[in-house]
Amino acid sequence: MNIEQMLAVLDPEIVARLKTAIEIGKWPNGVALTPEQRKTCMQAVYAWEIKNLPETERSGYIDRGTKEEDEHCDSHVEEPEFKPIRFV
Question: Pfam families of this UniProt entry (predicted)?
Fold first, then answer.
């Protein structure tokens, strides 16, 4: 089976089951995934998501936002100047 045939049979429900199997390391019947199966499942999920989902909904998406030059994130806190500990 080539990638196009595989993607043709996948639907959102199957992809959700594959993602769960990847996350917990087991098939729905409790049998552990082999490393090869996990790799294949991940490739199938990523390929399906690229073909069927917008970038913001895909696995692994990180919203980097947009910032002007010299603008910091809201959570950015300036670090205090480093002061070494002196033992007496």
Answer: DUF1315
